[in-house]
Design brief:
This protein has about 170 residues and is of the alpha+beta class. The chain is about 45% helix and about 20% strand. Strands 1-2-3-4-5 form a 5-stranded antiparallel β-sheet. The model has no long low-confidence stretch (mean pLDDT about 90).
Length: about 170
């Protein structure tokens, strides 16, 4: 069934118009063929899935939206993992480097999905942009850890390797 026909099935008028605006905004960035909108009338949920192929790597963004949207954030999954999984840091070293480089204590607390940061003005594509930013943060943290390991291995702490990367 066509995505716009699925959106027309939504019974709440304001939610229907918001989802239609979100769909049109997403279709500017992603091909309409890669976006799927499904409405579940029993659960009153809308599921928007975006399949994106970047450099031969398939990415899947899934948003589950209930009738409280846009006043409550949607449930967001990236490649079938909940968004909160990507906000977790694997170790204390990661957390310390995050604080050093980005002056940020916690990715969860600064995330759009945090209920204290949520606003009806936040769009679905902002989640995707934030995920890309978090992935870049984590990549830079790994680079910093690798630089520290290189310096430790060669017993030369005064090499300013980080100056060239950050």
């Amino acid at each position: 069934m066509n995505n716009e026909l699925q959106i027309e099935l939504i019974t709440e008028k304001c939610l229907k118009s918001r989802i239609m605006r979100e769909y049109k905004e997403l279709s500017k960035t992603y091909s309409i063929d890669n976006i799927t909108v499904l409405y579940n009338n029993e659960q009153k949920q809308i599921k928007i899935t975006i399949n994106n192929n970047i450099h031969d790597i398939m990415e899947t963004h899934t948003f589950v939206i209930d009738k409280k949207y846009p006043f409550d954030p949607p449930i967001y999954h990236y490649n079938d993992r909940r968004y909160s999984y990507y906000l977790n840091l694997p170790s204390l070293k990661f957390k310390n480097i995050l604080k050093t480089i980005y002056n940020n204590d916690c990715l969860c607390c600064s995330s759009l999905s945090c209920k204290y940061n949520w606003s009806p003005a936040i769009r679905l594509n902002m989640f995707i942009n934030e995920l890309n930013k978090i992935r870049q943060y984590k990549r830079n943290i790994v680079y910093k850890l690798l630089c520290s390991q290189i310096k430790y291995t060669y017993l030369n702490d005064d090499i300013p390797i980080e100056c060239f990367l950050f």
